[in-house]
Write a structure and sequence with these properties.
alpha+beta; Helix Hairpins; 4 domains; five-stranded antiparallel beta sheet; five-stranded mixed beta sheet; 17% strand
Length: 453
């Protein structure tokens, strides 16, 4: 693309007009030279009586000059193109000028590109994160110094297959199926015990890859400290809460209690129950996190589980008056943990009942959609504003804290659902509009389904 392609149309038209005008002038100069040579040759030929011969000699002389110019142009292009072009006239002068200008512009662009590449490489060399370029044949092409510290790469590894150097089975699986891990992969370092590396691979070009890795040991330690703290504090709170709840319940059953104290004890009992539910949810989350690597290979009978969820929903629905419907279309079962799935699905059903105004409609479904099967809970409740949906599965995130206090929610229900589904290689989809109800879908992949015999 020429430099002029970025200019306005009227300026480009002016440039083209000038170029055509200059080219016409150069051609006119060659034509005038040819006419002058022919006139001189013709006059000499007329003087000595050999007009045709001297006209032919004049033409030969003109073409000899052109061949000489062509020779000089060829010599300059092949040997001295970095130097200014030779002084020529006519069309050859225009050709040399355009070639010289194009070469000079190309050298300028190359110098700028080399400078840009040098700056980019200098920046990458200074990064604490490892950056590795892998070519289309999966060989190491370039890496920065941090890659040697984090991944153990050496100078002699250049042009070697990356999978012969980084041989962790999880990494090999990730490398061959990058799209299955959009957030990358955390690996334990082979260079230093207790060190963890986050690896992220991005495809570009035909089959080339960019690998970025960074140390997440500190983050892992903080996360483990958080898990330990939540686990320990939850266990420590459980005993005193049980004692308090027992005494409060005993005192509340006393018929001789003055009426002015009864309301206070009812509130204490309600808050103790809520605190106990929070502790139980925290313990469940902690257990899910600690057992994330355990296999879940039970065959969960979905027909039985769906009927159990429907019966539980009918019992919980007594004070709300909703119409609860069961839609059982799929015959597939799930390979997983029946206790965890019942807890996750129960959370979704309970939320739908709690956050739907009285006399609403709740539909619990188990359906097939192509190669996947979907557990869904649809309600006609208050709905959720779009900006809240991406954060609903965060711990303790509340769309409306006042409403959550009224319903007794702990803020951990959807976080538990997210963990359970992740451990079953499933995911949660949420569709909702304010005042139009919500639909929560748990989507299970084909390899997690057990077709009917």
């Amino acid at each position: 693309m020429s430099d002029s392609s970025f200019l306005p149309d009227d300026i480009q038209d002016e440039q083209h007009t000038e170029q055509h005008s200059a080219l016409k002038n150069y051609i006119s100069e060659d034509i005038r030279r040819l006419i002058l040579i022919l006139i001189i040759s013709g006059l000499i030929g007329l003087g000595i009586g050999h007009f045709i011969l001297f006209i032919a000699l004049g033409l030969m002389f003109f073409f000899a000059l052109q061949f000489r110019s062509l020779y000089l142009v060829n010599q300059w292009i092949s040997q001295h193109s970095n130097e200014p072009p030779p002084e020529l006239s006519g069309i050859w002068s225009a050709l040399l000028f355009n070639v010289y200008r194009a070469q000079r512009r190309e050298r300028t662009l190359q110098a700028e590109m080399v400078g840009l590449i040098d700056r980019a490489q200098s920046s990458l060399m200074a990064l604490e994160e490892a950056v590795v370029l892998i070519d289309e044949e999966h060989c190491l092409e370039w890496w920065n110094p941090a890659s040697e510290r984090l991944l153990g790469l050496k100078l002699g590894d250049r042009r070697r297959q990356v999978l012969t150097i980084l041989r962790n089975p999880e990494f090999i699986k990730y490398f061959n199926h990058v799209e299955d891990h959009p957030n990358g992969l955390i690996l334990q370092s082979t260079l230093q015990e207790g060190r963890f590396i986050q690896v992220k691979i991005t495809r570009f070009g035909y089959e080339s890859r960019l690998l970025v890795a960074y140390d997440v040991t500190h983050i892992r330690k903080l996360e483990q400290m958080r898990k330990d703290f939540v686990d320990n504090i939850s266990h420590e709170l459980r005993t005193p809460l049980t004692v308090l709840s027992g005494y409060i319940e005993t005192l509340s059953d006393n018929d001789d209690m003055p009426q002015r104290w009864r309301r206070a004890f009812d509130q204490m009992h309600q808050q103790a129950r809520r605190m106990n539910a929070l502790v139980n949810d925290l313990l469940l989350l902690s257990r899910l996190e600690n057992e994330s690597s355990k296999s879940k290979n039970q065959i969960v009978n979905m027909a039985e589980l769906m009927n159990q969820l429907f019966d539980d929903a009918q019992g919980y629905n007594t004070e709300f008056g909703h119409s609860v419907h069961l839609n059982l279309e799929s015959h597939n079962d799930i390979i997983g943990s029946d206790i965890e799935l019942a807890s996750a699905f129960g959370n979704l059903v309970t939320n739908a009942i709690k956050y739907t105004p009285n006399n609403g409609d709740i539909t619990i479904s188990w359906q097939d959609r192509g190669d996947v099967s979907i557990f869904s809970v649809q309600d006609t409740g208050i709905g959720i504003s779009p900006e809240h949906i991406p954060r609903l599965t965060e711990r303790f995130y509340r769309v409306d804290s006042g409403r959550s206090r009224e319903t007794g929610g702990t803020g951990l229900g959807l976080a538990i659902v997210k963990h359970v589904l992740a451990q079953h290689e499933a995911h949660l989809e949420i569709e909702s509009q304010e005042q139009m109800g919500s639909t929560f879908k748990a989507v299970f992949p084909k390899h997690r389904l057990q077709p009917p015999e």
